[in-house]
Amino acid sequence: VGPSVAGMHVVLWLPDNISDEFVFHEMQKRGIETLPISRFYVGNPPQSGLVLGYAGATEENITDGVRKLGQLLRSIR
Measured between alpha carbons, how far is 11 from 75 in angstroms, rounded to an integer? Predict the structure, then answer.
């Protein structure tokens, strides 16, 4: 996870063999909103990662989202 000294989101960089688009769609199915960073990445090949927003989230929402994301990433590794 990239640093966040102040702001509304962090970036979770994913290994090259994990598609951020795939993770994005799978997290949507679980009710968690993320944003694939490859859509905005300038470079070739695009870096895979997720923008994880937290500004409007409760601590419980964050904990639940991180748990679900961890479960998904462990299942596809």
Answer: 21
